[in-house]
Amino acid sequence: MSAVAELGDKLAGLTIAQAVELKNYLKEKYGIEPAAGGAVMMAGPAAAAGPAAPAAEATEFNVILESVDAAKKINVIKIVRELTGQGLAEAKATVEGAPKAIKEGVDKKIAEDLKKKLEEAGGKVSVKPV
Question: Is the pTM of this model over 0.70?
Answer without folding.
Answer: no
